[in-house]
Amino acid sequence: MKIVFWGSGEFALVSLKVVANHHQILSVITSADRREGRGLKIKSDIVKQFCLREGLKVYTPINFSPRFISILKGEGAELFVVVNYGRRLSREILEIPHIYSINLHPSLLPKYRGPAPINWVLINGEKKTGVSVIKINERIDAGEIIYQKEVEIGEEEDAGMLSRRLAEIGAEVLLRAIELIRRGEVRLKVQQESMATYFPKLKKSDGEINWRRPAKQIHNLIRGFTPQPGAFTFYNGKRIKVLKSAVEEGIKVSPSEVVRVQKRRGILVGTGEGGLWIEELQMEGRRRMKAGEFIAGYRIKEGERLCK
């Protein structure tokens, strides 16, 4: 099929590569270049970098001007395929392709609509999630469902791990959905609004660990915020990202108190219910490290507290 692909980042790139192996990619629309780092060097999205290497036509519009919309209309696309693009498309744009516009969303819609479903399913301690391909309408993630697949969540998966796995699964599901469209075999399913949930983009401040909460909730927060933006606490006035943890049940200790320090196991901290082992962390301005390295370097002791 003739496709215009819209997407940004690693998650979208996986789908672009898979779809490009089976269908004609007329053009790709991705995020505009931005300045990053201390030197404010210009950085292109990974999708744009791929397109330039592979000779695919790529656009990075800052706004959807009449001229750009005219270009889209001239492409002759049968489908617009949208994966993690990050911007809403107007009805005028959605109605350009000859068939319609579709979106790959990393949740089992109508649950977990919004920009950060992978993070929130982990924060909320869900055991299952999935991917959905929908026909896009003007409401956020509310279009009719074309195809879905349920996915079990690993007990130790964090957002980075789950995102990579859903990207691979999602790309295959997207390919299946496109094939159903090509054959004219799609049976659109209306989303049940009574079952719909919406979760917002994560804020960095939401990652601060409240040690009065149960260890299991804190553990899930860490999973949902890893690798970015990162769940954090404080030690001697400096911020620490906690990147990997494990729950220790059946102990009663003061929240935020360091209960045990073991180079091989980590740092056991008291919570509102049970204890939490910190296994990997990152001190402000430093690299990610195992808890044993931190213990050796910073001489943290039992009885100290992780708080402001």
How would you characterize this protein structure?
There is one protein chain. The protein is α/β, with parallel strands linked by helices and 308 residues long. It has two domains: 2-195, Formyl transferase, N-terminal domain (Rossmann fold), CATH 3.40.50; 204-298, Formyl transferase, C-terminal domain (Methionyl-tRNA Fmet Formyltransferase, Chain A, domain 2, Roll), CATH 3.10.25.10. It has eight helices and 15 strands. The chain has helices at 9-20, 46-54, 66-74, 91-94, 117-123, 159-183, 215-225, 291-298, and strands at residues 2-7, 24-29, 34-36, 41-43, 58-59, 79-83, 100-105, 128-135, 145-152, 231-235, 238-248, 258-262, 266-270, 275-283, 288-290. Strands 5-2-1-6-7-8-9 form a seven-stranded mixed sheet. Strands 10, 11, 12, 13, 14 and 15 form a six-stranded antiparallel sheet that branches. Strands 3-4 form a two-stranded antiparallel ribbon. Helix 1 (9-20) packs parallel to helix 6 and helix 5 runs antiparallel to helix 7 (215-225). The mean pLDDT is 96.
Neighbour order of strands in the largest sheet: 5-2-1-6-7-8-9
- What is the H-and-E element order? EHEEEHEHEHEHEEHHEEEEEEH
Main β-sheet: number of strands, strand sense, barrel status?
Answer: 7 strands, mixed
The strand count comes to: 15
- Which architecture of the largest domain per CATH? 3-Layer(aba) Sandwich
Say which CATH homologous superfamily of the largest domain is assigned: Formyl transferase, N-terminal domain
Gyration radius (Cα, Å) is 22 Å
Unreliable sequence segments: none
Q: What structural class results from the helix and strand content?
A: alpha/beta
Multimeric organization:
single chain
Mean pLDDT: 96
